[in-house]
Amino acid sequence: MNANMSRGMFITFEGIDGSGKSTQAKSLVTALETKGMSCVWTREPGGSEGAEAIRKLLVEGDPDRWSPETEILLFNAARRDHLEKTILPALENGQTVISDRFVDSTRVYQGVARADLRETVDILHKTMIQQEADLTFIIDIDPEVALKRGLARNSGEDRFEDMGLQFQKDLRAGFLDLAKQNPNRCKVIDGSQSMQDVGKAVLAAYESAMK
Ligand code: ADP
Ligand code: TYD
Questions:
Q1: Which helix (H) or strand (E) is 135 found in, with range?
Q2: Mind giving me the DSSP string for 70-126?
Q3: Whose CA is nearest to atom 22 of ligand 2?
């Protein structure tokens, strides 16, 4: 670790299931690495060995497997390990960290769409995590289009997709509200465009945020 190196930037991608976040997070890593930047791609739930083990508990199985309250605890346990083992060491090393989901997903999935638990989410975040992203891309898309894309993958990690179309509509509204509340940090990108055009819009928003 270089003591003179400035702290890296923390960028997150958020959105409903199948919105194209993972595609775009990876594509931004490639674009920034092409410019010579050192990046770390990561994801939630997961991103460290312990958090990946917790991920399996969360994304597999019956939609009723966990209550929203238990989910909040599991996501925070995973996030704390991810933060300690992956995110903070990379940021301290001056690297740009790009995460496919972070706390905004808990704010919207558990805080708004699963249950009205936003206050609980905020209290736990303040106590156990604290870290916020410097820049967040919210990939916005019609849930019917996204649900088809998501379910087409048939990955066995469909517990949240199985909660249905209205759930995805509530999520979309939740993410758009969050963007309105945090206009400096959150950039809403139209995810219905081609992969290349979404990628161009992300890069343009990144460049304008860096000015
Ligand atoms: P998420 O991480 O938000 O669930 P993914 O990036 O995994 O979404 O994309 C879900 C599916 O949709 C994948 O099969 C991916 O190849 C496809 N996809 C992603 N972006 C687009 C796009 N702009 N247009 C069409 N298909 C896309
Ligand atoms: P992910 O693998 O990103 O799903 P997808 O590719 O379908 O978008 O995330 C797994 C699921 O976990 C996803 O449905 C969203 C959910 N989730 C929460 O409910 N709360 C959270 O805090 C996080 C990080 C994810």
A1: strand 135-140
A2: HHHHHHHHHHHHHIIIIIHHHHHTTPEEEEE--HHHIIIIIIIIS-S-HHHHHHHHH
A3: 106
- Tell me the pLDDT tens digit for each residue of 157-182: 888 877 788 999 999 999 999 999 99
pTM (2 d.p.): 0.96
**Token pair for 18:** 């199948």
Q: How far apart are CA 91 and CA 70, in angstroms?
A: 29
Q: State how far the Cα of 52 lies from the Cα of 94, in Å rounded to an integer.
A: 24
Which ligand 1 atom is nearest residue 24's CA? 6
**Looking at the CA of 12, which ligand is closest?**
2
Lookup: tokens for 66:
């966990």
Contacts of 166 (CB under 8 A, 6+ apart): none
